[in-house]
Write a structure and sequence with these properties.
With 344 residues, the protein is of the alpha+beta class. It is built from six helices and 17 strands. A hairpin with a 7-residue loop joins strand 3 and strand 4.
Length: 344
């Protein structure tokens, strides 16, 4: 079989910001640091990203990671303020996921911020009992409360005007390649371990782009009715008639074992058209403030450009140099998310 086009895990999350230094300081609390900075003039930025404004971007690095990074994008004239404090539930909704040593510590800061009058939209941490979902972790036996260790994660969602973040704290297990903690920061955290993408479509085939064209591994594909959606009911504002499809993708080298899973995942959530998701597409595209783009590195960008067209991607730009001097193109994938693909 031909090698997959995807190289490594998710490369970057693109976030529109009005102030690069202030945003760098914020993400520094989660283990990131300033990397290279570069600019595009109006004409090239419009050709590549579809927004008529000069652009200065700064890549944020996380220790020595080659993926799970952040691209801060400062537009001279942003198109709008972005999604803001809108909940995760929405068509073309994006957020990032990081593992942290303490989700409660982040939540504590949110309470102080809220008291100070800062705009915050969050949900109390939710515990997900992984040992119940997978009793095989205990030799086929579910753990006895207060007697056996419980394997699980606590997940806390925090939405601010320029950031949409999910924080996961592990209990009684490790997965050494599923993110590397930077303990030298305010909130010891990994690089971006996954992104969440939520959208509306009645066509389950839109997922095929990610494994059949991009070359990722589809590791789960599951309908989740309201009755089974214990951890996500509040996070996704579910009502009793809701069913969504959770489809997870991992990078080509990722394996099934606990120590073989790799960070840089896509967690995708599809709702049917009758689910009444607000359309956020014009608030979550390049040129907007907030989460507005994702990037992936590609093995053969010229061939992949043709493959994207054949797979039903639209709004394909020509291949040109991005602000960091690397060949890239932007397109809208069949699920209507905007991606920039970059020559590895």
């Amino acid at each position: 079989m031909a090698e997959p086009q995807a190289v490594g895990g998710l490369y970057e999350t693109g976030i529109g910001v009005p102030d690069l230094d202030r945003a760098t300081e914020y993400w520094g609390s989660f283990g990131f640091r300033a990397g290279p900075e570069a600019s595009l003039d109006i004409a090239v930025a419009e050709d590549l990203y579809g927004h008529s404004s000069a652009l200065t971007s700064r890549r944020l690095l996380h220790q020595d990671s080659d993926h799970g990074l952040i691209r801060l994008m400062r537009w001279d004239s942003p198109s709008n303020d972005g999604v803001g404090l809108k909940p995760l539930r929405g068509h073309i909704s994006r957020w990032t996921g990081q593992f942290v040593r303490s989700a409660a510590d982040v939540s504590n800061h949110a309470r102080v911020a809220e008291t100070s009058g800062l705009p915050i939209n969050d949900l109390p941490p939710t515990f997900i009992d992984l040992s119940t979902y997978n009793p095989g972790l205990f030799d086929g036996k579910a753990p006895r409360p207060f007697l056996d260790p419980v394997i699980g994660v606590s997940e806390y969602s925090l939405i601010q005007p320029l950031s949409r973040q999910a924080f996961l704290e592990r209990f009684n297990y490790e997965s050494k390649m599923l993110g590397t903690y930077n303990d030298d920061c305010l909130f010891p955290a990994t690089q971006i371990a996954h992104i969440g993408l939520m959208f509306t479509s009645d066509d389950h085939g839109v997922y095929d782009f990610y494994d059949q064209t991009l070359g990722l591994k589809r590791v789960s594909d599951t309908p989740v009715p309201y009755e089974r959606a214990t951890a996500s009911r509040d996070a996704y504002d579910l009502i009793e008639s809701d069913t969504y499809w959770a489809v997870n993708f991992e990078e080509p080298r990722s394996g099934a074992g606990m120590d073989e899973r790799r960070s840089g995942r896509l967690l995708m959530f599809r709702f049917e058209s009758g689910s009444n998701l607000e359309d956020l597409s014009e608030l979550a595209r390049p040129g907007c403030l907030g989460h507005s783009l994702n990037t992936w590195r590609i093995r053969d960008l010229n061939a992949f450009h043709d493959e994207c067209g054949a797979a039903g991607c639209t709004n394909l730009t020509s291949i040109q140099l991005d602000e960091f001097g690397v060949e890239a193109f932007t397109c809208k994938t069949p699920d209507e998310f905007i991606w920039t693909f970059i020559q590895a």
